[in-house]
Amino acid sequence: MAVNLADDRLPCGRDIDRLWDQLATGAPDWHARSCEYCQAALAEIRPLSVAIRELAAEQVRPPADLSEKIMAAVLARVGAAPRIALPGPAGNRLLISVPVVAFILRAAGDTVDGVHARSCRLTRDAHDRSTSANLNLSISLQFGMPALAAARAVRMAVRTAARAQLGITLGRIDIDVVDVHAA
After folding, report:
1. CB 173 within 8 A of CB 159
2. How many other CB atoms are there within 10 angstroms of residue 108's CB atom?
3. Cβ(158)–Cβ(110) below 8 Å
4. Minimal CA–CA distance to 22: which of 12, 32, 14?
5. Which candidate among 13, 15, 115, 154 keeps its CA 20 to 30 Å from the CA of 49?
6. pLDDT tens column, 104-154
7. Helix (H, G, I), strand (E, B), or coil: what is residue 132?
8. C-alpha radius of gyration, the chain, whole number
9. Tell me, what's the pLDDT at 4?
10. Domain-by-domain residue ranges, the chain?
């Protein structure tokens, strides 16, 4: 007797999923043991249940190049970040992504006491070595801290980091105070 397993219910009214659950626990109930429809369904799904258990027990080893394939797919989808060429000895070329530059400069703004740097954005011409890059930096100030003095200190810290860590000279640095925080 063949049972159509595409239907959810057997002719006796029993749900096929219940039989799968009973096979997983290894104990069909009294109905399944005595019902001809359940017995026929169990005969058909038992080999599948065994195969599923065997496959689930197998050790899965991802291909050695899985990480590379994933990263290639991600980069193909989002594209590589724009890069800036850093100055260096003749014949040597070092490229750094714009988000990394922004991270370094934002971290420099964080070194000023009472300031938390929020976002940092270089202008589009940052990768053009013939012009100096401009920077937009948003910050949060500690309550009671003078904004002009904080902006001066942040500009100095960011310019110093740009020269010392990256070897680049910044043009205009716009500071935007977007928040005030407690001490």
Report:
1. yes
2. 22
3. no
4. 32
5. 13
6. 999 999 999 999 999 999 875 555 555 578 899 999 999 999 999 999 999
7. coil
8. 32
9. 52
10. 16-57, 83-181
Measured at the alpha carbon of residue 115, what is the angle toward residues 109 and 120, in degrees to the nearest 5? 40
Rounded Cα gap, residues 58 and 49, in angstroms: 15
Average pLDDT, the chain: 86
Choose among 61, 52, 12: nearest CA to 32.
12
In which band, very low, low, confident or very high, does the pLDDT at 11 lie, cut at 50, 70 and 90? very high
Distances (CA, A) of 144 to 57, 91, 102, 140, 177: 63, 50, 27, 12, 13
Whether residue 95 contacts residue 82, with contact meaning beta carbons closer than 8 Å, is answered with no
Instruction: Provide the token pair at 99.
Output: 């988000």
> How many angstroms separate the CA atoms of 8 and 10, rounded?
7
| Average pLDDT rounded to a whole number, residues 72-77 | 80
Assigned CATH topology for domain 83-181: Alpha-Beta Plaits (3.30.70)
* Tokens, residue 170: 């910044």
Burial grade of 182 (CB within 10 A; 0-12, 13-18, 19 or more): exposed
Residue 154 tokens read as 């942040």
Predicted confidence (pLDDT) at residue 178 exceeds the cutoff of 60: yes
User: How far is Cα 180 from Cα 175, in angstroms, rounded to an integer?
Assistant: 14
Q: Do 106 and 136 contact (CB within 8 A), yes or no?
A: no
Residue 130, token pair as written in the block: 């013939």
